[in-house]
Each structure stands twice: as C-alpha cells, then as structure tokens.
Amino acid sequence: MQPVLAYETWGELNAERDNAVLVFTGLSPSAHMACSAEDPSAGWWEDMAGPDKPLDSNRFFLICMNSLGSCFGSTGPASIDPETNHHYRLNFPVLCIEDIARAGAEVLNGLGISQLYATVGVSMGGMTGLAFSILYPARTRSLVSISASARARPFAIALRSIQREIIRRDPAWQKGRYPYTAPPVNGMKLARKLGMVSYRSAAEWQQRFGRERSTEETTEEKPFRHDFEVESYLEHHANRFVGSFDPNCYLYLSRAMDLFDAADHGGSLEAACARLELERALVIGVETDLLFPIEQQQELADLLYDVVAEVTFKTMPSLQGHDAFLVDMKRFRPVIAEFFRHE
Amino acid sequence: MQPVLAYETWGELNAERDNAVLVFTGLSPSAHMACSAEDPSAGWWEDMAGPDKPLDSNRFFLICMNSLGSCFGSTGPASIDPETNHHYRLNFPVLCIEDIARAGAEVLNGLGISQLYATVGVSMGGMTGLAFSILYPARTRSLVSISASARARPFAIALRSIQREIIRRDPAWQKGRYPYTAPPVNGMKLARKLGMVSYRSAAEWQQRFGRERSTEETTEEKPFRHDFEVESYLEHHANRFVGSFDPNCYLYLSRAMDLFDAADHGGSLEAACARLELERALVIGVETDLLFPIEQQQELADLLYDVVAEVTFKTMPSLQGHDAFLVDMKRFRPVIAEFFRHE
Do both B119 and B135 map to the same domain? Predict the structure, then answer.
C-alpha cells in the first residue's frame, strides 16, 4: 500500500532546513491545526499555532499531518483500495501507532527535511511522537509530549474497548459494511458521549452543570431522555461529532492506542528510551486527566530524565481533564511558548 | 399501587423490639444478603452479615429488603400490574429513592418495629438510608452510609445516562416491550461493562491486568474483539450479570439515583439534615471511588457533624474503588464491627 498522506504547513522552511516542527494530532482532528491563506477557517489548535503564537510560524516551519488511518485526506479504512476499487473498510490492515509515525517520516522525506527542530504530539499524537523519536532517533532534536504516555493502561483500554463495542453493536454498522450515506450514527454518538466523560473531569462538570435541569422535555414518546443539563451537553457535542468521522477509522485508531507500548522497542520502556537522541524534551500532564493519568506522565518524564539532557515536566491543575490542551490556553500557551523561545 | 416488598431477616427481634438493623442495597442485589437456614446459598454481603459477623445476627435482628422497583421479589417494572394483568414495563411510575425509603418503612410497619437500632446503606442504598432518616427521623437511632452521597453529581449522572442510552439503543429493547425470553442482552452487557469501569479503579486494574493479552482469538469473523485480558474480564462479568437483572428495572433504579437530591427536603442539604434525629452516624468513603468520590463522602460527613452528636468518618485507601465494600473485607469488616460493638 502506498498511502496518501494529507498535511498542512505554516511558515517557511529556512535555508538550513532545520526549523521544522511536526505536530501529531489526537485521534479525531484533521491536519487543519490553524487557519491559513488557503483555508481561513479556524483550526483545532488555533490559539497555539500561527504567526506570533506559541508555535510561531514566523520562526518555525510547522507541519501537521492527518494521521494514517484517519479520514481527512490520509489513507484509512474509508479510502478506496486502488487494487480492488472498493473501500478498504475492515480489509485495512491492523493499524499501529508506529505506522502513523512512519507516515510522518514519509511526509518529511517528501519535504526534504532530514531533522526536525521538534516533534509535538497531543494525546494519541504524543504516543506517535514518542514512537517517531524511538524509530528515527536522528530525525528530531526535541520532543513535546502533551497528555500522552509511553503505553496504554487497562483502564483506558477498557473505556476504548467499550466505545468500540458500542459502535460494533449498532446494527447500522453492518460489520463495517455500512453505506457511507447511512453510517452507524447512534453508535458513534454514544461512543462520543463516553469519550466526553473520559476527556473531561468530574470537578469541571460539577462546577459547570451541578444539578441543573435540562430544558428538554421527557415525553411518553421518549421516555428516559434527558433530565439534566449535563445530558443535553453530551447530546449536543455528540451530534456535532457524528457525520464528520468515519466509524471504521475510529475503530482502527482507537485500537492503535490500546496496542501501543513503547516497550515493544527493545523489551522494556527503559531500553526503548535508551534509543532516543533527543537534546530536549517537554512533558505536560494534567492532574485531572482520567485517560492519561498524571502518574503516566510522571512515568514518561522519569524515563526521559535518564536519557535526555534537558527535560521539563509540567503538571497542570486544569479542571478540563484530558482535553485541557484544547481549552485551557491560559495555562498551556505560556509553557509551549517558553519551550520554543529557547535558543 | 400496593407494592409487594421482598425482604429477608437474620437473628431475632428482642422483647424491647429495639435491636433491628435495616440494610438498603445497591442498585442490583437482592434481599439475600447472607446465607440462612431457608436459603443456604452465599449472599451478596456474606462476609459482613450473620452470626458473629460485623453485622451480628446473634445480637441484631437484621433485615435486608429488595428495593422497590427491582426484580427480585419486590414490585417493579417487571411485575404484573393487577389492574391490567400485564407487566408494568414503562407504565411503572417514575421511581425515586424516597419511594424505596418509604417501602422500607412499610416493611418495618409489617414487622411491628417502630424504631431501628441502625439503618445501613451501601451505594444507592446509602442514598436510601439517608432519605429514610430524613423522612422518618424518629424511626432510626443511627445511620451507616457506605460509598454513597447526599445527591448525584453530573459526572455520575453522565455515566448512568450513557448506560441507560446503551440499553435503550439496543433494538431488542423495543421501547421496553421486549419479550422476557429475549431481553436486550447486548445492551445490558455493554451497560454492565461501563458500570464495571465506574465501580472499580484504574490503579486496581493496572495492578491486576497491566497489559496482559487475552487468550481469546480475534478472528476474521469477529474483528475488533478482545486483545487484552481486561477486556475478557469485562466480558466475563457482563455475561454473569445479564439474564439475572431486568432491563426496565435497571433503567428505573439507575434514574432514581440521578434524581436523588437530599436538598429536595427543605431547600438545602443543611435544611434536610436539620430534620435528622440520629444519635450516631458512620460515613465510609473510598479514596479511589469514581462514582461517589471521596469529596462527596466528606460533604456528607460535614453535614452530619453539624447535627449528629457522634459522627465517624472513615476514608478507605482501598484500590477497588466503589465496589470496595463488597471485596475489601479486611478494611471494611473492622470498621463496621467497631460501630456495632458500641453500647
């Protein structure tokens, strides 16, 4: 398979070709990290990347790739297999985080970049950035890992496994052979709602919603609908998500996170990290993160302390849990800016 | 509606009729708390209740009631409405925790008990015990609340709302009109798996399962099945649960927990607790509990400190999360025993 890889760039590659920063995304975003002349719509990390932003496109050549296996331009289960002229669907091979990292290296090859200034990864992308740094030690000088980890733990695996089963149990999934005009919407919505529970925090919701009642009425036609505002919030967000993301792609990427274990590279996490040739690393974790708990951020930082000359570990007290890097800009922007101000 | 209420008893009511202890269960157990001459099978709290156990049937007259709305003998949505000769199903009225508490008072009326030595409640039953103590201040001298709270918070509401939606989305649910020979098994299994995630803790699973692989094979027939032991564990437990519990009863009891707010009795939690006439109270919370977090246990204890002469608040470092009261007997037995040794 010769995959298509969709990416966007901001800023200019300098003459020395040493100012490139590659951003690996979480499970669901596209390569559209920030607005640009070509696409002025706001990106998923609009406040973080662009001219004079913490990831400053005046200084750096920023690259953001749509993950291999996703459905926003890069090859994935929803793509057409040129050999059969049919969508891959479940014939797409098992996807690993390392495959996404290798796709990142392909993008750099195409751009003629042999070494990055930095690799930045958020959530699943943090796993990808670590895999990239282990697979290609010479290709990045530094690593920023945000709300990620060196391997998946059983609690996160259980949550993702249930999300996948919710999608698979939707009769509309049809063992992956759903018409693209009629995907398993209910399964995707429910999986997304469960995702929201794991992406945010109990403390945030207590503050935002408390026991506020929903304005939605429960009728005899719709028993057991929504009594509380938090339920309406989940419904609203799930509706926004559904339609944009292909269910089979979701299954593949979700499983890739479960399968990731940096220890596969050498037999232990320590052996894997011994391969790194990083000059600097920044690990950011959030204290309220349920999915990538702060102990795992500490574990990653401890591993890096042993092999990287300059390691910064920041723990954020953000209330927004795993999603904090998308919303708690007041805390995240200065930390990222500081790391990239370095010279 | 004149509900049937199923209960079991252990020990003897003394001549003064003042040694009765009423136990309110969590969402899913029956009244069979411990073995007895009539039913020698092990109960759901076998290590806690019986002769010479912490809840000592040699000293106390123990009563455990199957919750109103449940399906193990007490009237609930799976019962037959004598007026129509059909199962109630969704025609069963909205169930509140207070209804279960009132059913407890009915049981006491039938037994000729005007005042309990203690009310003991676990999880949902702790909410019920608090409701009982607020509704009938003169009917209990003490209260034991284990892994419960004075009201539901949005994080727990969200999880339970998703569980209910999972069941409702199972086509076999048929808007509650499923044949009792073919209930929505897949929905119930998935809801139970999500329940397990909220009942245990990430730390426990990390210790028990780590990244151990499942022996179950993923085949082409069953793509996206189980790669990890934690997934097989969930499957095993979900299979055990399904079949024993009626889906509509589950929906009613689950919603009752969301709806409970002790502040409904007087306008605030403080006003509600001002009604209490308890001599003693014991609040037990578990530090790893996701569903009834330790802050909520602290909140309840603080409320009781203001109005009850003797309050004990115990925080348990158990790894087993919300379920610890069922499994961490080494920690729970001595605390319960100590409370009931009191004279």
Answer: yes
Closest by CA to B53, choosing from B76, B23, B29, is B23
**Partner residue opposite A154 with nearest CB, options B162, B226, B230:** B230
Q: Are residues A71 and A145 in the same domain?
A: yes
| B73-113 pLDDT per residue, tens | 999 999 999 999 999 999 999 999 999 999 999 999 999 99
pLDDT digits (tens, 9 = 90+) for A246-281: 999 999 999 999 999 999 999 999 999 999 999 999
CATH number, domain of A305, equals 3.40.50.1820
Query: B252, B283, B305 — which closes off a domain?
Result: B252
Contact B190 A161 (CB under 8 A): no
What ipTM describes this predicted complex? 0.94
CA separation for the pair B108, B267 (Å, rounded): 28
The answer as to whether A38 is a domain residue is yes
Asked if B123 is an active-site residue, the reply is: yes
Q: In this complex, which of A158, A164, A228 lies closest to B230 when CB atoms are compared? A: A158
Q: How far is the C-alpha of A286 from the C-alpha of A289, rounded, in Å? A: 5
Assess whether A190 and A221 both reside in one domain.
yes
Partner residue facing A261 (CB), from B211, B259, B261 = B211
**Residue A42 belongs to some domain of the structure:** yes
**CA B138, CA B163: separation in Å to the nearest integer?**
37
Q: What is the pLDDT of residue B14?
A: 98
B11 with B95, same domain? yes
Nearest Cα of chain A lies from the Cα of B36 at a distance, in angstroms, of 37
Residue tagged active-site, from B254, B289, B318, B323: B289
Q: Is the Cβ–Cβ distance between A68 and A24 less than 8 Å?
A: no
CATH code at A169?
1.10.1740.110
Range B165-175 average pLDDT:
97
Q: Is residue B91 located within the same domain as residue B184?
A: no
Residues paired with A22 in a beta bridge: A63, A119
Among A252, A280, A304, the domain-final residue is A252
Rounded CA separation A134/A274 (Å): 9
Contact B158 A226 (CB under 8 A): no
Q: How far is B153 from chain A (nearest CA, A)?
A: 6
For residue B43, the tally of other CB atoms under 10 A from its CB is 21
Tally of domains in chain B = 2
Q: Residue B224 has what pLDDT?
A: 82
Residue A193 belongs to domain spanning: 156-252
